[in-house]
Queue: 3 jobs
Job 1
Amino acid sequence: MQSTEKNTLLADSIRLAFGTYNVLNGAWLRSETGKVTGVLGRNGCGKSCMFRAIMGELKTQELFVKFNDTVVTGSDEMGRYVKYMAQKTFLPPNMPLKQVFEYFGADYEAFTEDFPKFAIYPDTPVKELSGGEVRIAEIWLCLCSDAPFCILDEPFSYLAPVAVEVIQKLIRRQKEKMGIVVSDHNYEALLEIADEVLLLSDGYVHLIKDRSDLVRYGYCRF
């Protein structure tokens, strides 16, 4: 069961380069229990690279990660602290959906309470679901895990507006138990749920105080 104690995750001084191309120049990310942190940025700015670096999937030139008072940089156990939903699906395509939930130690019945339409899919292989349906299952598995933190990369992609609203409601509910980081190009949907907004631009992270900052940094026009 998820702990309700206050936890903090800090990733700092993230520097990542591929050859002579600098992707991240001292970027940072902070998350804490009870807060949704929104991360915005144009295509190719390095948001996914930053998340993958934090999870230990990319080798960086510099990186510092701390969970509460424990330094976890380079830890092989980052999955204990953070559940990461990348843009690429992680569900086994040939496995029936309910079996997937059993594999991850998740409650399929609780899932169907949030998303009743999935009550007819327990024996359906993942590969027979739509892209949006797979995305919903992945989001739920990450948000309702025992980990104290969750990173969702493009959770609203492929989702109908009504599904986006349900996911927003789920995020608001689960943030009471964990720290949640959300990155999505549907920035209007993101702004509705974010308690704090960060913008990644030119390899640096900027704290966004209001919409005028997004205009000033050239992310949107108004």
Job 2
Amino acid sequence: MEERLQKIISQAGIASRRAAEKLIIAQRVTVDGTVVTELGTKVDAARHVVAVDGKPIAASEKHVYLLLHKPKGCLSTAKDDRGRRTVLDLVPDVSERIYPVGRLDYNTTGLLLLTNDGALMNGLLHPKREVEKTYVATVKGVIDEAALTQLRTGVLLDDGMTAPARVRVLAQADGFSQAEVIIHEGRNRQVRRMFAAVGCDVCELARTQFARLTLDGVKRGAYRSLTTREVERLRAMTGLEK
């Protein structure tokens, strides 16, 4: 099936469609060895060799978009050299090569997207998009006003100052506190480190929302496919065309 050249490049995860158009105009794209500069050019990726800067791109496969409710005790990676369970072990019926969008650490539960759409993955993770992530953290002790103020204005970590977070206390009882935290950065173990920096030890952490998607109706360890409308909204959010 013939498709526009910029769409083929985007589906391969090389660049967004607009960036792919710039590659074509800059004469960096070839089809069967011939430079193509016409933006409306349509190509059958199964019959022709499309290359960017001389490097052939793989024929695109069907895009898969999954929302997983990650449990504890598995890694947010495609494979593990030590043989530990990964999130892909939770989706054994999926034949396409998919990857997690970002990571949740080993003992953090919650919402994790899995896809083979490289352009969308890069867009959701790019700092300039400021895609929001919502967590619920259970910490030992009381989260006092001083700690809340620090979290809301920015916390100095070993890799720099965090952006201001939106934080609200949900409950405090029996020596524990529960708080909702909304951030748009994606540093390693960021929420745990933020609380540690203000003197709070996180004992439970769950991501409840990502890019305005929620876990409604998805049990822990289970997953579902995103709807067409959800995918279109994510693509719009990341600056990708339909």
Job 3
Amino acid sequence: MLAEPKAVLWDFDGTLVDTEPIWDETQDEMLAERGVAFTAEHRSLMRGSSSMVTAEIMAELFGEGTSVQEVFDEVHARMVARLTAELLWMPGARELMEDLDRHGVPCAIVTASFSIIMDAVRTRLPHNVRYIVTSDVVANAKPHPEPYQTAADLLRVDPRDTVALEDSIPGATSALAAGSVVVAVAPEVTHAPHPRLRAAEGLEGLTWADLAQTWRELKEHA
């Protein structure tokens, strides 16, 4: 029997659920109300980073008298309202999750989002998502390895026996540093070459067999 990874670790925003446009619209709406806008550099810094980083950038743009906590609270209140109303899965995400469930593969979510976001969607997540690791339950957020190491510890597996699905550079960096094999599922994001990273054109068509084969081919570089 061929060796198989023991778990699949999922990023949330832009990997499992299509929240990136909602984050962008919510933040742009708040900026427009104040007559300011993000630059391309701002957006690059924010992708895959903690939402507190975004709040810090926005507070700086809003100017003196605006606290980071105020911005953070407003962004999250608006996001919770929108995610409570609708949750859009990334193409292929539900199908892959169902395939993992059929094969009894445990999953965890490792996200740069905070608990307030995940609490709003928790009841609508697939039941084989056993744990959720958010930025506010670790001392060091992505790109530090702690989030992925924490998820593996909760699942009682070695990170080297996991496949991580990621769409961002900070997320992939975090998972690689923890020891996971990484499948990068956002083709528009260019990752630095790494022997344990393989790029995919998204989740559509990906199966448990594909992830297991990728893991077998790349795990020796852990």
